[in-house]
Amino acid sequence: QVHLVESGGGQVQAGGSLRLSCAASGVTFSNRAMGWFRQAPGKEREFVAGISSSGGNSYYADSVKGRFTISRDNAKNTVYLQMNSLEPEDTAVYSCAVGRVLGGYYAENNYSYWGPGTQVTVSS
Fold first, then answer.
1. Which residues have CB under 8 Å from 30's CB, separation 6+?
2. What would the pLDDT profile of 88-121 be if each residue is shown by its tens digit?
3. 53-to-42, 106, 119 alpha-carbon distances in Å
C-alpha cells in the first residue's frame, strides 16, 4: 500500500521560506516521477512542481518559477519543495503525488497516489 506523508508546512511572513518534505513508502520510488500540487480555499487544486524519477528534470508552474525548487533523494524515498520569497497568494494546502509509470507532469491525472497535504500560510 502506497503511503505519502508531507511535513514542513506552517505559517510564515511574506518574503520568508519553508521547505516541505514528502516521504513515500509502498512504491518503487526511484522509478516514479513525483509532483507537488496545492489547493487554496475555494479554488481548484493546481500543479506547483514536478520532478523526473532520476531528478534530472524538473517542471514548475509559472507562478512559482524562480522561487520554488523541487528536489528528491531516492535513497531516502523523499521529495522536497524549497519555497522562497513566499507570497500571501502561496497560502494553500500542499500535497505531494506519485506519478504514473508513463505520464506527464502538469495534470492531476498524471499522478496515481496522493498525500493528505500540509498547510502553508503566508501572512502579509
1. 53, 54, 74
2. 999 999 999 999 977 789 999 999 999 999 999 9
3. 32, 15, 26
